[in-house]
Amino acid sequence: MLTPSQAQDRAHDIVRRATAAGADAADAVFAASASTEVSVRLGKLEDVGRSEGEDLGLRVFVGSRSASVSTSDLSSAAMDALVERAVAMAREAPEDRWAGLAPQERLLHGAPPALDLADRHACTPEQLRSAAQRAEDAARAVEGVTNSEGGGAAASESVWALATSHGFAGSYATTGFSVSASVIAGEGSAMQRDYAFHSARHLAHLDTPEAIGQLAGERAVARLDPGVARSGTMPIVFDPRVGASLLGHLSGAITGGAITRRTSFLLDSLGTEVFAPGVTIRDDPHRPHGLRSRPFDGEGLPVSPVAIIENGMLESWLLDSASARQLGLEPTGHAARGIAGAPGVSTSNLYMEPGKMPVATLIEDIEDGIYVTELIGQGVNPVTGDYSRGAAGFTIRGGEIVAPVAGFTIAGNLLAMFRALTPANDLVFRQGVNVPTLRIDGMTVAGG
């Protein structure tokens, strides 16, 4: 694996070649990664996988025309051919007056923040197999579990670098570790499946395989013998592992691309109340060890924690440089860059601040509702905000979570759902997008 400085040199070298070959401006990304994955099933080793790769992406500008190319052939001759092809493509591309590198005066200069995203401790295939086995064993030990889809463990390391022709060069390294288990409870047509997993940048921060496996087993058993949900209008409570999807719908609606194309249900909502008062949603790229932390964005701009929703008010769009120019605004440091193509937009560690109530208090006045633990399908219209998804979970009766239900649909409109949302106080940072338990009153349920 290359060091970050070596990766940065690779990106800078091809930018230099591009400007020498006639490009007016250029930027390049270099990514190297290596990962090992081990899976077991029913106590036996099922698969061991190892992947390694190095890729480079180049974007060049000739006036207001641009082209992007990528390659995994990093020989000097291949680099020269890549540059020549990219410049030729750009000369024939259509003009785009909004495209271009990020504003030079906004680039990150000086040392980036230290986020401690790379663990110095390696994890051997033998250790991964042991972790996968321990997770599956713990899941299968839960009374009522009858079969297993397997346990898994993985370890990865990666290096990412960006260089531009107008003065930016930066790079950073990350590591990742994960353990998972997926098991089945019950027999025949009554079988139910569920899972648990955990990922972390540092091995020491990973939950124990036994805890992950036990949770998977308990979740599967709890779903046995599901009933039929009653149809009607009622409160819906979202478990954190599915409630995070609501922030995905929010972030998708406030990206620069959605706003410039006028394809967002939040099109005219900047500076207005979108959520209930008291709801705050933040994006924190500087979170130490964060699964989506980063020291700079995909165009070389500095990043910083920001409130996207503050006390219910929508405070900012998510803008890369191209969409910012089109809207007459400044980029917000949310550009995300893959190997191929122009930058897009992405959040980092997005989360909703916890509310004041424990979960028990949040649901204690619900006489008839549903606690949702699984969402199925993609029935969300990003233009209108109409929301309809299949779901599974548990009925709430008299303020208590009582019995599993499955095969029903929950529906509403995201504008109304956001305004009716109440967060509990149980926020835990486990994923890239995190929320506490969420309650939304007035949703429509169609039972099976």
From TrEMBL:
This is PmbA protein. Residues 231-447 form the Metalloprotease TldD/E C-terminal domain. Residues 26-90 form the Metalloprotease TldD/E N-terminal domain. InterPro entries: Metalloprtase-TldD/E_C, Metalloprtase-TldD/E_cen_dom, Metalloprtase-TldD/E_N, PmbA, TldD/PmbA_N, TldD/PmbA_sf. Belongs to the peptidase U62 family. It holds the Pfam family PmbA_TldD_1st. It comes from Sphingomonas endophytica. Residues 125-224 form the Metalloprotease TldD/E central domain.
